Write the structure tokens for this entry.
Amino acid sequence: MGRIAYVNGRFVPHADAVVHIEDRGYQLADAVYEVWALFDGKLADGEGHFVRLERSLHELAIRMPMSRRALTLVLREAVRRNRVKEGMVYLQVSRGVAKRDHAFPSPEVPPAVVITVSRVDRAASELRAAQGVGVITTPENRWGRCDIKTVGLLPNALAKQKAREVGAVEAWFVDELGLVTEGASSNAWIVDQDGVLRTRDTNANILRGITRATLFDVIRDAGLKLEERPFSPEEARSAREAFITGAGTLVLPVVSVDGKPVGEGVAGPVAQRLRRLYIERAKDRAI
Ligand code: PDD
């Protein structure tokens, strides 16, 4: 059975799933998105992603396309129709379809909704996590509202491509003070020389990661120390460990920054333990 997508009220074969050429997401990046990891067919960290979706939409004055309850049912139906147990669900909501004009359509048009489901090879992901990955750094060049999860991801896409060209998996943006903001599609962390877990505070221009938030609870329950404080690439290299978090990567050990090893240059024990604990917790919170 082939993949099925949801487009504006209909389930259609993935290959035939299209949006209108004047969808404002397509022309103006006037759209937001969410990504859920799927564990055993359930939406990991279910509620957290809904709360952020509603916030992103609110910040851009786009209507929630349907109630949270209805949207949950549609997402679940998309998962069911794709028969995916381990994977990811992508949801995009744009301001809708209207004659091209930078200002909002008047009268208002219905928001446009797209959902896709994809399979993830968890065995391959676990292998990658056991080995750890490299990241590169790149100057921060994004807009000032990275707390809103918009599809305006061109700087992120360019940064990720730069990483891929040198065999790295993620690019960390570095601000004008020389401090890491976050990754192109993940939040950035270190375990510093004192064993303290450090990630940037959300007053900075970064996405408030749901994986990050759940990991805070995991860290507290494990009795580990946590500080919301930025770090530089040099501090990451001289840290004991580094890792990234996100719905796509979960908790993924980082073993090098710009080609130079972090700590011993191997996936660290704290990051690996937090990955296991996070997956357990996310499964508990799956809906
Ligand atoms: N990205 N920072 C950025 C810029 C992101 O794009 C993401 C997620 C995160 C982590 O957020 P969360 O833990 O809520 O997934 C941080 C998704 C997975 C993506 O773009 O595919």
Summary: The chain has two domains: 4-120, 125-285.
